[in-house]
Design goal:
Number of strands of chain A: 6
Shape of chain B: globular
Strand content of chain B: 25-35%
Number of helices of chain B: 9
Oligomer: heterodimer
Structural class of chain A: mainly alpha
Largest sheet of chain A: 2 strands, antiparallel
Structural class of chain B: alpha+beta
Number of helices of chain A: 9
Helix content of chain A: 25-40%
Low-confidence stretches of chain B: 1-16, 39-69
């Protein structure tokens, strides 16, 4: 083929090959496309505006999604006693259901945006306000998940009011403060641990760089006697009789324990 | 060794030949069942017959044997000579139990809570009994539980999945829609980010159920998330993260990075060949291979694409890792390479000296397990264990090492290496970087001390 030196025939010949090649490419890509991307039309339907509005309630750190509304410290105080204090305590200090909301923060923390009581030798129990770095997180979570036994029952203004009171209890705002979609962003600059997060680690991605990687020593890896910590006997006992947690046949039994009855 | 005398073999049979003949002749009715119970009492003397509730509510007769009851060497075994009723009578019919149950003798194999760990049971943990399991698949009824606002059994006919945000076509799917889509099945481990959290500072809990039992492994079936995102016309030039939201009371939310969302994430309805169990997200959950369990959002109802992560409660207040410098690591999701010996393990007692199979589990959120080494001398010397096939990516791998116990005290450890070359760290190495307040992502080498009495204790070696 293509032996003719006549220009037109040559061009025709080359073009013929190009057409054939293009045809083959089209055919092969169709085969691949059928495997990877089937026609799924008809499955699922368009989401309707009211449906989207009903579920699209999340609020991000840049306050995207924050609805207009407001609530005062005063309104929040009443609401707090009615709907929040049972679990969180009148001052946000209770441990009864979860870690305390408040405690462990100082005016200096508020100024710096880092909580000093976060230090590893600190004996202060960790509270929510010692950790949270984004005020939107509090708004979003109260809206979606609080109160504990009646989530999503608070109105938008009640969410603002309850948080206004929490910020008052935390000494971030005065008693006459009104929290709203306009003032919430200002609280961000008062959060005591607002600079307390780091993304500088390898645990965010499958390709992230690990922070430890020891060599896999095989022989004479420990010099001298290894330092051994042993579990306290008390911890063994509160988990019930281990004999009842293993089979009574097979390679092993469970250790028999005189148990201190665990609370139901 | 005197302590061996009190150890017990499997329950003995104390039925007389006469009773057995009687049962063979006339069948095993209620009256004879009682007779058998009395015979046990008479035959065992000091032993007592107790009725106890089995795990599934039925009353089960259990023998309590006198100390030292064992088949004597050189004597014929009555379990061989005297045929039991199940060998001489007709058994139960098919379909007596339409959805099968474990044997009545498996009552020790249950999910359990760790007392004092949490304050409310609706936001709590029930641990998988790893000490009693084999292979790599977790039976669905033993998959660990972690809920943030309790669990519900949701009617799948009323369940909806909404996909919206940075997409051309925001859509709603029913289970009818989803289960017609091209589905895949894959086996993956699922580990809570707080697994082994109680052990950061020192050994605190007695058995592998409590040290490592926020871990399970199942075959999941579902549609790749990438198929759904494509179907909705995802804006891949803008989107950075997918917000996944559950239909539970807390409507738990987590941000999934876009590169992972397009990789191997599934929207799953199947688990181990059946539908998901309600405690594990029935009828729909996210499967995020290699990443901590909280991102595997259960009762999944909404996926929203955004141009940044969403800073939700469970990635801003919880599931953040405290560092010694007072900072918290945020969006720390990957479960790094880890392993644990499940036998011999804490709270177990070996029956006698001699041969044992040291066996355990290894896994990595970054890929396949390449090697597992085992030490029986507290980390001084190591030997490489055999890996049981299959060895799959982001999946539990079972390892085995044949071993003879000579009765001396020793410390057993396992150390896994994944396909990236990463070596599971010692407690010393991990604490040097992360301190002991991190709560999350403790993947340090676990040590079990086997004492001369045969008892295994949870210890830590730096």
């Amino acid at each position: 083929m293509c032996k003719s030196i006549e220009m037109t025939r040559l061009i025709r010949c080359v073009m013929g090959w190009m057409v054939m090649g293009a045809l083959m490419l089209t055919l092969s890509s169709r085969v691949v496309a059928q495997e990877i991307k089937p026609d799924l039309s008809g499955l699922g339907r368009a989401a309707r505006p009211n449906e989207l509005a009903a579920w699209n309630t999340d609020v991000r750190a840049d306050f995207q999604g924050l609805p207009p509304g407001q609530g005062s410290v005063k309104e929040g105080e009443l609401l707090w006693e009615q709907k929040c204090a049972r679990c969180h305590g009148s001052f946000g200090e209770s441990h009864s259901h979860t870690n305390p909301l408040l405690g462990g923060i100082t005016p200096d923390d508020v100024k710096k945006g880092r909580v000093a009581a976060q230090a590893p030798d600190s004996k202060v129990p960790v509270s929510t306000l010692m950790k949270v770095a984004t005020v939107s997180t509090l708004w979003d979570f109260v809206r979606r998940a609080m109160p504990w036994d009646a989530p999503k029952s608070l109105s938008t203004n009640e969410v603002y009011a309850s948080l206004a009171y929490l910020f008052f209890l935390a000494d971030l705002v005065e008693a006459d403060f009104v929290l709203s979609d306009k003032t919430l962003p200002k609280i961000q600059n008062l959060l005591p641990n607002r600079f307390g997060m780091t993304l500088d680690h390898g645990l965010g991605s499958v390709n992230g760089k690990p922070d430890v990687n020891q060599p896999a020593c095989m022989k004479d890896c420990v010099v001298g006697e290894p330092k051994v910590k042993v579990m306290p006997t008390r911890m063994k006992q509160i988990h019930g009789n281990l004999e009842d947690q293993m089979r009574d046949f097979g390679a092993f039994r469970g250790v028999t324990l005189e148990t201190k009855a665990a609370k139901p | 060794m005197s302590s061996f005398k009190s150890w017990r073999r499997a329950p003995e049979n104390f039925l007389s030949a006469q009773t057995l003949e009687d049962i063979q002749r006339a069948g095993f009715d209620a009256q004879r069942r009682e007779l058998v119970a009395k015979a046990f009492l008479a035959a065992t003397g000091s032993a007592a017959m107790v009725l106890s509730k089995s795990a599934w509510g039925a009353s089960v007769a259990q023998e309590v044997l006198p100390a030292g009851a064992r088949t004597t060497v050189g004597e014929d075994d009555p379990h061989i000579l005297q045929l039991p009723p199940h060998t001489t009578h007709l058994g139960n019919p098919v379909a007596m139990r339409g959805y099968g149950l474990p044997s009545q003798y498996e009552g020790a194999t249950l999910r359990r809570e760790s007392p004092g760990l949490t304050k409310v049971r609706e936001s709590s943990v029930a641990f998988t009994p790893l000490q009693n399991l084999f292979g790599i698949i977790t039976p669905s009824g033993l998959h660990f539980e972690r809920h943030h606002s309790g669990w519900s059994d949701i009617d799948p006919k009323h369940h909806r999945l909404m996909v919206h945000g940075l997409v051309k076509k925001p859509k709603v799917y029913t289970l009818d829609d989803l289960m017609r889509l091209p589905s895949v099945s894959r086996i993956h481990f699922l580990e809570c980010g707080a697994n082994t959290s109680m052990e950061w500072a020192s050994p605190a809990v007695p058995t592998v159920q409590y040290t490592h039992g926020m871990l399970s492994c199942s075959e999941f079936t579902g549609v790749p998330l990438s198929v759904l995102l494509d179907d909705c016309g995802a804006d891949l030039s803008q989107a950075q993260a997918v917000l996944a939201e559950g239909a539970d009371g807390s409507s738990l939310t987590r941000s999934i990075p876009m590169d992972h969302a397009l990789d191997d994430v599934l929207v799953a309805w199947g688990m181990n060949g059946e539908m998901l169990r309600p405690e594990n997200g029935y009828p729909l959950r996210l499967v995020v291979p290699g990443v901590q369990g909280v991102s595997w959002v259960k009762w999944l109802r909404r996926l929203k694409l955004g141009d940044q992560k969403f800073a939700t409660r469970d990635e801003s207040i919880h599931y953040i890792d405290a560092l010694p410098n007072g900072l918290y690591r945020q969006y720390s999701g990957i479960q790094e390479c880890k392993s644990v010996i499940t036998t011999p393990s804490g709270g177990q007692r070996l029956i006698e000296h001699g041969f044992y199979n040291i066996t355990g589990l290894a896994w990595s959120g970054r890929g396949k397990i390449k090697r597992v080494d085992v030490s029986v001398d507290g980390g001084r010397n190591w030997q490489t264990a055999a890996l049981q096939e299959p060895v799959l990516s982001k999946c539990l791998t079972r390892f085995n090492l044949p071993w003879r116990w000579n009765g001396e005290r020793c410390i057993l450890q396992s150390r896994a290496i994944d396909e990236t070359g990463y070596v599971q760290p010692t407690y010393g190495a991990l604490r040097a970087v992360r301190g002991s307040q991190s709560v999350y992502h403790n993947n340090a080498i676990q040590s079990w001390r086997l004492d001369a009495t045969g008892e295994v204790l949870n210890v830590q070696v730096d």
